[in-house]
UniProtKB/TrEMBL annotation:
It holds the Pfam family Cutinase. Keywords: Disulfide bond, Hydrolase, Signal. SMART domains: Cutinase (SM01110). The lineage of its organism: Eukaryota, Fungi, Dikarya, Ascomycota, Pezizomycotina. InterPro entries: AB_hydrolase_fold (IPR029058), Cutinase/axe (IPR000675). This is Acetylxylan esterase. It comes from Lachnellula occidentalis.
């Protein structure tokens, strides 16, 4: 249910559904009200404020227990003073002789382990992908990160060792859709440039959902949709690094293109003016009949259906492109 609500919010692109071939403008719109069902979690009271010394009377305000349930006091113990190490305002642990002592690791050992972990993280962050490096653009109003289409990147990482992914940092906004989309194109382009410079021998994949799918198309094919500022595709030297691209529910979808997958029979609400040409050989654009945005339909459920229906095929295509040495 949580996923569904986020997506419904994420794809309120109906504010641009009325885009017309001439005199393009974005009509005003209002978002439907909604609520996310409460999923009750145990009350944790006040958050622990960190480790602090002091005497405690057991459970303080740090953890709330159901009415009628109590735990024995931990604040004192036989043969000891009862003073303890307090976890903020929460649990107080006795430090008397009767308490169980925790083993202490040698200081040098702890420092070496910590240093090893830090080095490993830095190596992972700077290492070049030996499989494929995927750059992922989420859909409108999804929380920052890779969004739901990031599931495809995760599947590829399991199937193709040495693969990794990163998210496009852009607003994913509906209220300023055109500005948001242009920002996404700029950021994805910068990520490709930076990664190609750092890892010239690595392969790159692009993934995008809804607004993110349009970003992928504009990066690879250039921006040619009515109402958007025209831009050229990425330069050939960068394009040669990209071996696969996945689009789900692309608003700039155009029927009859070789990269198309699915049952769509109509253009999207912001159809691309220029075909992708030879670049289409590395692309798969999934669009279902009735999809509100890529097929100019009225079925929002179709726009939300790609993940369960197409993730396996999308991941398989990327895997084949990597192993095929494109």
């Amino acid at each position: 249910m949580h996923r569904f609500v986020v997506l419904v919010l994420g794809f309120g692109l109906t504010n641009i559904c009325s885009a017309a071939p001439q005199g393009f403008s974005l009509p005003s719109f209002s978002m439907p009200s909604f609520s996310i069902p409460s999923q009750a979690l145990p009350s944790l009271g006040s958050s622990p404020g960190g480790l602090g010394s002091g005497s405690g009377s057991g459970l303080s305000s740090g953890l709330a227990l159901p009415t009628g349930l109590s735990l024995p006091s931990l604040g004192s113990s036989p043969g000891g003073s009862g003073s303890g190490l307090g976890l903020g305002s929460g649990l107080t642990l006795p430090t008397s002789k009767a308490s169980m002592a925790s083993p202490t690791l040698p200081t040098g050992f702890v420092k070496k382990r910590a240093l090893a972990g830090l080095v490993k993280k830095r190596q992972a962050a700077s290492a070049c992908a030996t499989g494929i490096h995927m750059i992922v653009a989420r859909g409108s109003t999804e929380a920052a990160g890779q969004g739901l289409i990031g599931q495809v990147a995760t599947a590829v990482q399991s199937a193709v060792p040495g693969s990794d992914s990163e998210a496009v940092d852009y607003p994913a906004s509906l209220t300023d859709y055109l500005g948001s989309e242009a920002s996404g194109v700029a950021d994805m382009t910068k990520l490709i440039q930076a990664y190609a410079a750092k890892c010239p021998d690595s392969k790159i994949g692009l993934l995008g959902y809804s607004q993110g799918a349009q970003i992928v198309g504009d990066v690879l094919c250039g921006t040619s949709e009515l109402g958007l500022t025209a831009s050229a595709p990425i330069e050939a030297s960068l394009l040669s690094k990209v071996v696969a691209a996945i689009q789900y529910g692309d608003p700039s979808h155009v029927v009859g293109q070789p990269q198309n997958v699915g049952t769509s029979t109509h253009n999207g609400i912001l159809p691309r003016g220029t075909a992708c040409g030879a670049t289409s050989s590395i692309m798969k654009s999934f669009c279902t009949s009735g999809d509100t945005f890529c097929d100019s339909g009225s079925d929002i459920a179709a726009h939300l259906s790609y993940f369960a229906a197409n993730d396996a095929d999308a991941a398989s295509f990327i895997e084949s492109q990597v192993k095929g040495g494109v």
